[in-house]
Design brief:
The chain is an alpha+beta fold. It has four helices and twelve strands; from the N terminus they run βααββββββββββααβ. A hairpin with a 7-residue loop joins β3 and β4. It is elongated, with a radius of gyration of 20 Å.
C-alpha cells in the first residue's frame, strides 16, 4: 500500500519529518518499506526560472537561430541561443539555467542544460517549450507567459508544482 504524506496531513495534524513518521508507522505495526519522492512534474522544474527577453538578434551564422539577452533576476543578463521562431523582445518565458535537469513530455530520458557553443556563440541556458519542461505535448514554440509573471520567480512556484513523499 502507498500513502501520501500530504494526504496523511489532511487527516492527522502531523508536523514531523517523513522519516520520523515512517518510524512511528513501522513501530505501530504498519511496516514502511520505503519512502518515495513524488513531484507533480518530473524533476520539479528545479533550476528553471521566469525570465524576460530583453533583446533579440539574428544569429550571425544561422538563419533559424536567434541570440537573446535574458534577464532572470540575478543582476546579469544571460546570452541564450534560441531556435524558436516565436521568441521576441519583452516576453516573459521559462528559462532553464545551466545545471537544470529537464524531463521532456513523452520521453523516457532526461537531459541536463550545459553551457554550449552553438555556431560560435555561447549559450548560457535554454528558453523552454511546454514539452521540454514536461508540462504538456506542445512544441509549437517557446512558452510565452503572462506579462505579469515576476522575473526571477522559480518556475515551480509559477506553475504550482508540488512535491510529496509517499510511504510504501
Amino acid at each position: 500500500m502507498k500513502i501520501s504524506y500530504k494526504w496523511l496531513q489532511d487527516y492527522v495534524d502531523v508536523k514531523l519529518k517523513p522519516d520520523v513518521v515512517a518510524e512511528y508507522l513501522t513501530s505501530t505495526g504498519l511496516e514502511v518499506e520505503g519512502i518515495i519522492d513524488y513531484g507533480s512534474i518530473p524533476g520539479g522544474l528545479n533550476d528553471v526560472v521566469i525570465g524576460e527577453v530583453m533583446e533579440c538578434a539574428k544569429h550571425p551564422d544561422a538563419d533559424k537561430l536567434t541570440v537573446c539577452s535574458v534577464d532572470i533576476g540575478s543582476g546579469e543578463l544571460l546570452k541564450i541561443v534560441c531556435g524558436s521562431p516565436n521568441v521576441n523582445t519583452g516576453q516573459k518565458v521559462p528559462v532553464a539555467i545551466i545545471g537544470a535537469e529537464l524531463f521532456p513530455y513523452d520521453k523516457e530520458e532526461s537531459f541536463t542544460i550545459k553551457k554550449v557553443k552553438i555556431r560560435g556563440i555561447t549559450s548560457e541556458g535554454m528558453i523552454c517549450a511546454e514539452d521540454e519542461l514536461g508540462l504538456g505535448p506542445s512544441h509549437d514554440g517557446i512558452m510565452v507567459l503572462d506579462r505579469n509573471a515576476v522575473t526571477g520567480t522559480p518556475a515551480a512556484d509559477y506553475f504550482g508544482v508540488y512535491k510529496d513523499k509517499v510511504f510504501e
